[in-house]
Amino acid sequence: MAPAITDAGDIALFLISTNKPSITISNSSTTNRELHGEITLNQHHAELLGTVNEGKQALTWTLERIHTAIAASAVGCCAKATEMMAEYTSEREQFGRPLSHNQAVTQRAADCYIGTDAMRLVLWQAAWRRDSGYPAAEEVRTAKWWSAEVGQQVVHDVQHLHGGMGADIDYPVHRYFLWVKQLENMLGGGSAQLSELGKLIASKAKVAAGVA
Predict the structure, then answer these.
(1) Would the pTM count as exceeding 0.70?
(2) What letter would DSSP give residue 8?
(3) Tens digit of pLDDT for each residue in 66-79?
(4) How far apart are CA 139 and CA 125, in angstroms?
(5) Helix (H, G, I), strand (E, B) or coil at 167
(6) Does the CA dihedral 175-181-187-193 come out positive or negative?
(7) Helix extents (H) in the chain
């Protein structure tokens, strides 16, 4: 399934068959080594799903759930990365004492914990509203922003606090860094989420003022 903008400016959804010579799927490299495909269409005929004016609503419904899932994945990655960082800094000794006894280390570790917990809270808010049937567009965009901006900061700090061990690919902490970096930009990074969130807020203000 793929969305497309029609000549009239509407969003329509199309079902694309992958067993025709007019479509080519090639492997695409990703940050976290997931298997992705790049699709190239050459005069490919696709089947319209529903009507043309139904595409935007269906696409919004789908994207809200995908954005929520992305935010949930980022929370899980950050939580595990923070846990690994806490264990490592408590066991790794330098100058006769654990790294966690240094104030600068504990402060950055606390920032990771607070950031991850804040990500989790906005995620739960978005997921609860979505699951309960309430409008959740703003909450979903907010959760995606937190997962993009705060998520990448958490895994960056975790990677840094691991020192040289964080650069060793035999040690798994780098996988969480790469995963969150990919999730950060998937379907729009932090700036894109702020832009869409601003449009939602402005639209709501216009409706309240009777302008739209």
Answers:
(1) yes
(2) T
(3) 999 999 999 999 99
(4) 7
(5) helix
(6) positive
(7) 55-91, 103-131, 137-161, 173-185, 190-209
Region for 96 from its dihedrals, namely left if φ exceeds 0, alpha if ψ lies in -120 to 50, beta otherwise: left
End-to-end CA, the chain: 32
**Structure token pair of residue 58:** 């269906």
Q: Right CATH number for 54-206 from 1.20.140.10, 1.10.3720.10, 6.10.250.3280, 1.10.3080.10?
A: 1.20.140.10
- For the chain, what are the domain ranges? 2-53, 54-206
The one-letter amino acid code at 26 reads S
Is 1 in a helix, a strand, or coil? coil
Is residue 90 predicted with pLDDT exceeding 90? yes
